[in-house]
Amino acid sequence: LTRALESLSPEKRAALVLRTFYGYSIDEIAEMTGSVKATARIRLYNARKALAKTLKAQLGWEAAPDREEES
After folding, report:
1. What pTM value is reported for the model?
2. CA 3 to CA 33: how far, in whole Å?
3. How far is it, in rounded angstroms, from Cα 61 to Cα 37?
4. Please, is 63 exposed, middle or buried when counting C-beta atoms within 10 Å of its C-beta (0-12, 13-18, 19+)?
5. pLDDT tens across 20-40, in order?
6. CB-facing half-sphere around the CA of 4: CA atoms within 13 A
7. Are 44 and 14 in contact (CB under 8 A)?
């Protein structure tokens, strides 16, 4: 997990850590990072997407079907 977090840009990592581990709102994250709300939301979305991709690759799950396909 640490390596995957380190692979994110500082902006994306900050948004993800502030939201996930500290529970800050998008508004608070935007204020703390000096960005607008939409930018904070996009950084968080992109961070989650990139983190999932990195973790899947590290765990060898690239070819695993999406959960929606399993149902």
Report:
1. 0.80
2. 23
3. 33
4. exposed
5. 999 999 999 999 999 999 999
6. 16
7. no
